[in-house]
């Protein structure tokens, strides 16, 4: 094991470059999947005619597909019909589609967990369906969603490593290149990558616990 060689300034910079790409992709996918997931989750919760059944089919379809297949589809299948994306865009779109389906179920579950009596009381007091959702259900539901949402975001960040299959220069991709320079770099490099993932995900989990403590 060559720790000195694996942790040379050049290699460390290369890994940090990969981490930067990982964080950019993860951040973009987190924001987009949260937005679309919330929209889909609300549509399913409100049982909007036509739209809700369609969203149910879409969510179930995506949730039962491997994320790797979706990433491959974004990068290699869409260009066949004239839709071309660069590596980063294909990764973000693939992750967003997959994670939005997961988040939609978290959102729907969080909203349906609110006591039905509160909804009925709000409606009987003259609030409309949208007003009840916005003022009564959503604020309480979002607080309950924080822990599962953060857990899903942690999974998303780790799932960015799957983009290595389309050669996105993220953390695992760059780690693989360093390992390819010498087998003695394998253990030191993987240990460092594991530490990096642990630190980032640990910070996210601590953030979740802080929100949970404030909610209680």
TrEMBL record:
The keyword Transmembrane applies. Keywords: Cell membrane, Membrane, Transmembrane, Transmembrane helix, Transport. This is Amino acid ABC transporter permease. Belongs to the binding-protein-dependent transport system permease family. It is found in: Cell membrane. Coiled coil: none annotated. It is a multi-pass membrane protein. It comes from Paenibacillus puldeungensis. Residues 19-208 form the ABC transmembrane type-1 domain. CDD domains: TM_PBP2. It comes from the Bacteria. PANTHER family: INNER MEMBRANE AMINO-ACID ABC TRANSPORTER PERMEASE PROTEIN YHDY, MEMBRANE COMPONENT OF AMINO ACID ABC TRANSPORTER. PROSITE patterns: ABC_TM1 (PS50928).
